[in-house]
Amino acid sequence: MKLLIGGYTKNTSTGIYELPVIPTQDKPGLQLGPAKAVIKLGGPTYFVQDGNLLFTIKNAGDQGGIASYELSQGKYQAKDSYLTAGSSPAYISLNRTQKLLYTANYHTAVLAVFAYTSSGSLTLLDTVTHTADTLGPRPEQSDGPHPHYFDQTPAGNLVSCDLGNDRVDFYQLQNNHLEHRASYQNEPGFGSRHLVFSPDGAYFYVVGELASKINVVKFNEQDWSFTNIATYSTIPADFTGHNGAAAIKISHAGDFIYVSNRGHDSLTVFGVKQDHTLELRQRIASFGQFPRDFNWDQDEKYVVVANQNSNNATLYLRNSEDGCLTPLQKDVSVPEGTRVLFAE
């Protein structure tokens, strides 16, 4: 097992780094070894893997887009790229079964669907551009729509989160064409960023970057009905500094939800009750500045968070009974990290 961390390349980072995951000798557990640059490219702020193929955001000066790499004989080889003028996307996800990629571009407001082959070749299938229909009141929303997430739903549809419009939009891909199906509107100034679904597919939990909140929503993918259940703060009520909630993850069993807080510099842990409402279990420091992404291993036993502004990562042990995190290793050096992914 190994860990991949990538992010911005504005200062010292050169792309995507690999960190070995090493069993400790004196006690059960793991530690992270030194980070080594394994893919050199601009701005790999988000990436995903399908076997030996890796698909990443790519910034190439006045162009932005995505690129594919193949791991062969221990090295990543560039396979293909799709670049257009302007900013690169903020998010990329994949459908391994149908070999599709989905991207959301925060700056250009474009959602895109790509097909990929087993050799890593990329083909654009369709795009949709969000319009300024329901812009929120905050300064970050004044310049237009900002889709920050585009991924699959439990029933095989697609869903995006738009920070500018405070909105969650649902699509179907029919004959390689995106068709809008429904929208769910968050409160003004929420800043809809990312979401996760309950294992039964009947609820989603959307994190608001600008409001530092999680909204619990019951929904039905057959008739596209939505019920607002409850909303919870990811930061303490007495915190007065600036914060932007970022990544959200839900455990495989659906019993715990985790959110990163950039500004409060913490991870917040919620327990999920039987009725899908939440209860606060823990807020723990990220031991760095501006934690954006975090992730866990396949068994959800270990969690790693990357601190973008302090150029370090933190490793935690996760308790599956109460969901809480215990730090195992701090100050793991890795530059400008915004994406964390465990890989075999």
Automatic annotation (TrEMBL):
GO terms assigned for molecular function: isomerase activity
Keyword terms: Isomerase
Pfam hit, one: Lactonase
Superkingdom of source: Bacteria
Keyword Metal-binding: no
PANTHER family in UniProt: 6-PHOSPHOGLUCONOLACTONASE (PTHR30344:SF1), 6-PHOSPHOGLUCONOLACTONASE-RELATED (PTHR30344)
Family assignment from sequence similarity: Belongs to the cycloisomerase 2 family.
Name of this chain's protein: Isomerase
Biological classification of the source: Bacteria, Bacillati, Bacillota, Bacilli, Lactobacillales
